[in-house]
Amino acid sequence: MGGMTTAIDVLVDGYGRVRDAVYGAVRALNEEQLTYRMDPDSNSIAWLGWHLSRIQDDHIAEVAGTDQVWLSGQWWQRFELPFHRYATGYGHSSQEVAAVRTPARLLLDYYDAVHERTLEYVRGLAGDELSRVVDERWNPPVTLSVRLVSVISDDLQHAGQAAFIRGVLERQS
Question: Rounded CA gap, 78 and 108, in Å?
């Protein structure tokens, strides 16, 4: 980021860091590694990657006023998960976590589609749009900038959890 850095530049950089973290946690793992759970009720790398992608997709589509990539790109059919197609993983049970079984490539391809849509949206924003209120259910109401940073924060936490699980797996082998 040379020259003058804008809030849009910072957001683009933040989402780029999420992408790096997701790839670092998921790439080149097989299905057994992706679905490994440290105990019977913990999350798997596959579920974490799917969930963080679904949340980003859902939240960006909502603020952008567009369809979710999950729906418009028919990703819900490609994944063949036993959930309603609008499911994001929020509140999932242990059994639902276990149901997310997918190859790394499919998971990363979906994440990339979400990432590209996110960058397209963020790069098209004018700086003054960031103060627009997007959710009045909170006190104070949530602005677009707060929502976009919240997604980055949530995604980085989940990608970090997935990276931790990957590290445990690598130490065991």
Answer: 13
Q: What are phi and psi of 133, to 5 degrees?
A: -75, 125
SS3 146: helix
pLDDT at residue 117 greater than cutoff 80: yes
The closest alpha carbon to 48, from 158, 168, 163, belongs to: 158
Measured CA to CA in angstroms, residue 28 lies from 20, 41, 95, 106, 151 at distances of 14, 24, 25, 12, 25
AA letter at 18:
V
Residue reference for tokens 């850095």: 5
First to last CA, the chain: 39
Please provide the average confidence, as pLDDT, over all residues in the chain.
96
> Bridge partners of 133?
143
Burial 140-168, CB ≥16 within 10 A → b, else e: eebbbbbbbbebbebbbebbebbbebbee
Query: What is the mean pLDDT of the segment spanning 128-155?
Result: 96
- Domains detected in the chain: 7-172 (1.20.120.450)
SS3 133: strand
CA distance 21 to 156: 7
**pLDDT top residue among 105 and 5:** 105
| pLDDT above 60 (res 1) | no
